[in-house]
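Model it.
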Amino acid sequence: METQVSLSIFQLAVKGGFLMIVLLALSILAFYIFGKRYWSLRLASKGNKAMLKDVISLASAGKYDLAKELCGKSGLPQFKLVKTALEHKDLPRTELRAVIEDEANALVAKYEQGLPTLATISGGAPMIGFLGTVIGMIKAFMDMASHGANVDITHLSNGIYTAMVTTVGGLVVGIIAYFAYNWLTSKVDDLAAQLESVSRRMTDLLAQ
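Modeled.
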């Protein structure tokens, strides 16, 4: 009589062995990086267009102190860039442009923090899963050799579980991290484009 075996996700993960702990740690790290960067980029990309328009209008009217004061009330990168431009408004055009670009690059780099780690997880997690596949198959063959002619599928189940579960785990973590990395990268690129637009505008405004 056949016996039907039902395993929970947790029980399956346990059968994957110690590599599942590594994959779990990587998944937690990936979610942490994504969550942290998601909220910061969401706020930065939305910005405050009305307030930014007011700041640039004040700068256009020569009210630099008021413009800087308004910029100081926001922690968004667009306003930090405008404030930097206003603080160096007396520089020659070439030098002013260089200062603004350096500040823009520094701001973008801040929002790129963690992305290389996320990219590493997206590529490394599947490799860890494949390592589990190899370990599982070695375990299965060793069990097969130890039981000789009396071997059956139950003797091989532990090794097969390790092989299959770690493969699935590695692919799931890797795929999620891959899509998260690409989405965040696209948002960073959008932010960089916004800062480049602000940079050109402030340079043309101040270096006349």
